[in-house]
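hey so i finally got around to running the thing on that chain from the lab meeting. sorry it took forever, my laptop kept dying and i had to restart like 3 times. anyway pasting the input first so we r on the same page abt which one it is
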Amino acid sequence: MSNFTGQFFNSDHPDFEEAAVGRVFNGRRPSADERRPVAVLFAETDQDVQNGVRYARAHQLRVAVRSGGHSWAAWSVQNGTLLIDLSKMQQIEFDESTGIAVANPAVKGGEVLEPFLATKGRFFNGGHCPTVGIGGFLLQGGQGWCARGWGWAAESVVAVDVVTAEGEIIRADATQNQDLYWAARGAGPSFPGVVLRFHLQTRERFKHVGHSVQIYAIEDFAPVMKWMYSLHKSIAANVEIVCVSQTMSLDDGQVPKRVLIVSGLALAESVENADEVLAPFQSCPIIDRALVNIPHKHSSLAEQKEDQIRANPEHWRYFVDNIWVDGEHSQVVEKIEPLFADLPEPAGFTIWFSMGPVRELPDMALSLQSEAYVATYLVSQDEANDDVNRSWLTETMKNAEPVTLGQYLGDSDMTNRQLKFMTESNFAKLQQVIGEYDPEGIFVRYLAKDSSTVNRNHWRL
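ok and heres what got predicted. didnt touch it at all, straight out
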């Protein structure tokens, strides 16, 4: 197409299939019969994005957007659309006087933005998996490093530059286009525009990364987690707390077995500060049964990112689901235990991620959370395992419904299971914002099994 600087692929182009799904992280991709865009544009400039939106309008197409391609359900791949892929737009700027970084949505938070900011002595709590683009991550709220203490990453978005449904570029922040700015912090894939740039308030970088690690037999899940519920809300704000079920060998030659890892990661001002804030992890009443107990070892974000890459191999087949859990702690532990103990995939893992103590969120679209988040990632290379993995995950999440408040958009798949992800009042406001900025429905909405019941826990319909 002559009015695009970037590459444009119609469905009859020999490279269309690669353009449509090649950047989808999940190897379990939608089939060509299930859903495909009409065309794909790899935008290289702001003008490309503007022209893409105008092209879609002229050809009666909707617009889907892809930043990093990490959506487990491949939300960017939808029928009747022009898919605007932003991967060619990779600019980062930094203002020394304000500490504000400006980056395009496809910039990878861990691989690119984090090391860039490290050279400036600054930090932004982006996604854990380093290959995640900041676009979808931030639009969904951004559950990043140390979110329990330092807030959702979207809280540090101070402005967005957006291409509107008319193909114009506007700035949205706390003083102009405030409702669009509100939506940019939590609306996810129903955001009524294409974000060109995020303006991010960074923070002073920590001086030391300290790591407390305990490993228990999976049979000790209940007592360990009951202890964790009694403890986690009192831990210092600069400590990330994760309990993960994982298969591993503790000794050479040992048959891998599933264990429970209790991890406390301190992003600290000093070694002494890390010693202090990690000390409470030694209070577990069954610590004598720990297979491994490391009170405090020196780590680095680079080391942590390497662990994330090993746990999340690109283009393997993923089934993922998640829940915000809430209720009496003993009941919560009982209902979530199968998600940790009985995974059918050796490479699969389940995390319990502390967000406690729960604090009041600023006024933004993201509005649902509880003191703890649970997500399961079934990871396989074998397509023959798909049916078993899908069935197991659906049924085991169903078992946890009595303690389920809702879910986080970032790990959801509404084509299989629909849950609440936003308060009713915020969801109603989002529809008003969408109606104001995209009344003709140019941009895609949530990819859901039933669009009429989005943002509702399916077992309460």
